[in-house]
Write a structure and sequence with these properties.
The protein is α/β, with parallel strands linked by helices and 490 residues long. Helix content is 43%, strand content 17%. It has 2 domains: 249 residues, 3-Layer(aba) Sandwich (Aldehyde Dehydrogenase, Chain A, domain 1); 188 residues, Aldehyde Dehydrogenase, Chain A, domain 2 (3-Layer(aba) Sandwich). The longest helix has 27 residues.
Amino acid sequence: MAEDRGANMNNNNISEQSAAGQQYYKNHENSSPGNIKDICSQQKEYFAAGKTLPVSFRIKQLRLLRRAIKNNEEKLLASLQEDMGKSPHESYLSEIVLVLQEIDYAIKNLAKWSKPQKVKTPIPLIPARSYIYPEPYGVALIIGPWNYPFQLIFAPLVAAIAAGNCAVVKPSELTPRTKLTIKNIINEYFDQNFVAMVEGNREVTQKLLAQKFDYIFFTGSIKVGKVVMRAAAENLTPVTLELGGKSPCIIDKDANLQLAASKVIWGKFINAGQTCVAPDYLYVHHEIKPQFMEALKSKLLQFYGENPQKNPDYSRIINEKHFARLTEMLDNDKVIVGGHVEQSELYIAPTIMDQVTWQDPVMQDEIFGPILPVLEFSELDEAIDGIKSFSKPLALYLFTNNKGTKRRIWSEVSFGGGCVNNVLMHLLSPHLPFGGVGESGMGAYHGRAGFDTFTHYKSTLKSSPRFDFQSLSYPPYSEKMMAWIKRIIG
């Protein structure tokens, strides 16, 4: 029964995914509401009127957003399945749950985050009091990617709203059904002067970037991230860039192999590997490599069956361009599991490649697909040196029970964030900032970190009008005055 259901889904939905999506895009590619300049201007006026500043307003909007998501849940799940072949179960866990958690956490903590913070005042500045006032930047631009087209628009939007900003969102045009659902949610539930959506192609994105926003939040590739940063520099606009990179996963000789295999197979092949923090490649200790490779094969069979192409829980590649890029990385001489491709369905089987070296094509750039290359190491120094020879990754995963190994990896290797004896799950904690470092990105969000990202902290010193001890520093200067100041400051 499961195979029949999977076959129907593949034949009726996924095989038509590319053609249907491209046709929809051609019909709607420049259907942005109104004029981009007008949208930005109207949002600036709305923000200047102070309507977004009250905490009560922000909480009301966050609750409205939560209701909008719940009311459109089934439409969102159906849209994601049409665009990417995602199963509703996977879409709910990977797209919707995180956003709902972000909303609930922000509502619970927003009053505390928004309060001015009193801090200490140095003795030479007394009598005075010092405060830090959180204030929103103004109008934020949020540009989302196609791989998690709902979550990666709405998670930063939650943070922007919580901080008191207006926002213009630009979803990816490569997931047209999901984009339409997002558009319907925003247009139905929000004042466009507060939250608006702009849709369109690359030229539309360039027009958006030419506007003077108060903050830009971008999730996507390193290449496009550089374009965004150059455009932001023209207006000296602060940016957060959530990019990617080759995120390593180290399997040490004392790891729980069955646990590690389960986590790796799930984390690598969810969304057909199109996850920015997926394990990009494995570094496996040579002593346990044979056993671990068997464990990987066993878990892959357990999760996706003999024929993943008919499994309703296995997604498809987003489009022909990415399909072609991924197939060029395949080396059939090194494929030990998978390797099967079907262009008409944009299907690439979950694939494991062994005996891989840093010179292979699959190791030259981020994979962002269902191909898992395996390297091996004998000494930890080999793995550390290999990882550090590449750009700083967005994530790193380590499977070990050795405290010394944990300390070495976390102290010697720079990366955005990661897990010990797990993968991907650090994203789900609102207490852990999520973001990259170096080429994998800059800035962070989730939970309090998201509020901080969209907030300017305004430092304020409130001096007493009754006393002016600062007069000691007014000219004309004297040796006696200097000696007195030195005595106070030390």
